[in-house]
Design goal:
Blueprint (H helix, E strand, L loop, with lengths): L1 E7 L8 E7 L6 E10 L2 H7 L16 E8 L11 E4 L2 E3 L5 H4 L11 E2 L20 E5 L4 E2 L6 H4 L5 H11 L7 E5 L3 H12 L3 E6 L5 H7 L3 E4 L3 H6 L4 E6 L7 H5 L2 E9 L11 H5 L4 E4 L5 H14 L5 E4 L4 H9 L6 E5 L8
Parallel strand pairs: 10-11, 10-13, 11-12, 13-14, 14-15, 16-17
Antiparallel strand pairs: 1-2, 3-4, 3-8, 3-17, 4-5, 5-9, 6-7
Helix pairs in contact: 4-5, 4-10
Length: about 350
């Protein structure tokens, strides 16, 4: 094993701090990656602070990883030393269930192996460590090709925020002329606006904050509507084919369901802390659907990365050094970032 630098939370109540972890030597089918950039996802905060329960400590978060291949196993055929690659939210799955066989590894019936905080498929007594580290070793099948056409730091959040919004847009076949609403302009919301507008949709940003209007327009939204206005909400009734709801805070789903056309769909990407009540009539009377969506599988994630390279789409990012991670967590919780923090991992090299 290789002892490397990382940043870890030791308990739910402690700041992340320097930590040493062991990475396995690459096996025959493995790719070793030097991590250049790692995005900061809200899921990192939930996990580090055990807000979802089940966190295994020490916890090394990070699942928006871009780096360079440093070594490959003898059976690896798709990658070689020096290639630019990425790693997303999971690093293994059973490979044999009906979902895995349909390229839906994220819904593996035996449970995918998350990039961090999951039992290792090689040793169930060991849990996975994520991208707040200098290197990672991943099976070839779960490594993604990254184009050098785009700034790599801004590509990193595509591995979670990008695919989380791309997947439902593709699943519900968004196309030119569709009317798409996006609820919440944050790390996920800003990618939903960029991607949906690039597909030809007429995008409306639905927000509680008037200060988000200029950003929404610059990102590609055709319209901006304040959801705090009862008149606005009344006037938008029955307008949208699809609503991408990115909000994780407690809110009323029914007021947004009312904005859908007949056969319209609202996709939930955020998980509020408490269950929400949904009025059955909102669904039944217009044959509307309320659905959820996770990230995409490996095939779809690669498709998304290629699509973004072709269309010049990246995340809006603010760069930080690893020793700023605790401040970045607090700023993320305060929505004080436009729109994703990304760690420059070379700042980890001189860690003691």
């Amino acid at each position: 094993m290789k002892n490397i630098n990382a940043y870890a939370a030791q308990t739910a109540n402690e700041d992340l701090a320097p930590f040493k972890i062991d990475r396995r030597e690459p096996g025959p089918g493995d790719v070793e990656i030097e991590i250049l950039f790692c995005g900061v996802c809200h899921s990192d905060i939930h996990t580090a602070r055990n807000e979802w329960g089940g966190t295994k400590y020490p916890c090394v978060p990070g699942h928006e990883i871009v780096g360079k291949v440093t070594r490959v196993g003898k059976e690896v055929t798709k990658y070689q030393e020096g290639d630019t690659v990425g790693v997303g939210c999971f690093v293994d799955s059973c490979g044999h269930c009906e979902n895995c066989e349909e390229d839906l590894e994220q819904y593996c019936l035996k449970g995918p192996t998350a990039t961090y905080n999951s039992p290792s498929p090689l040793d169930r007594e060991v849990h996975t460590y994520g991208g707040y580290s200098s290197h990672i070793v991943v099976k070839e099948e779960f490594v993604l090709k990254i184009s050098d056409k785009l700034p790599l730091n801004a590509v990193a959040p595509l591995l979670c925020a990008g695919i989380t919004t791309y997947s439902p847009l593709r699943r519900w076949n968004v196309k030119k002329g569709d009317k798409v609403g996006v609820v919440g302009l944050g790390g996920l919301g800003h990618m939903a606006v960029k991607l949906a507008s690039s597909m030809g949709a007429e995008v409306t940003m639905l927000s509680r904050s008037p200060r988000k209007e200029q950003d929404a327009n610059e990102l590609g939204a055709a319209h901006f509507q304040l959801t705090t206005s009862e008149e606005n909400m009344k006037n938008m009734a029955g307008r949208f084919n699809l609503i991408i709801n990115t909000v994780s805070a407690q809110h009323d789903y029914n007021q947004y369901l009312n904005l859908l056309k007949t056969d319209g769909v609202m996709v939930l990407l955020g998980i509020p802390p408490k269950p929400s009540e949904v009025q059955a009539a909102q669904l039944i009377m217009k044959r509307r659907s309320l659905v959820g969506s996770l990230v995409g599988g490996i095939k779809e994630t690669q498709e998304m990365l290629d699509y973004c390279a072709e269309h010049g789409i990246v995340s809006e990012v603010e760069m930080i050094n690893i020793d700023q991670i605790n401040e970045a967590y607090e700023r993320t919780l305060s929505a004080d970032v436009r729109y994703r923090f990304v760690i420059d991992m070379k700042s980890l090299k001189n860690q003691n």
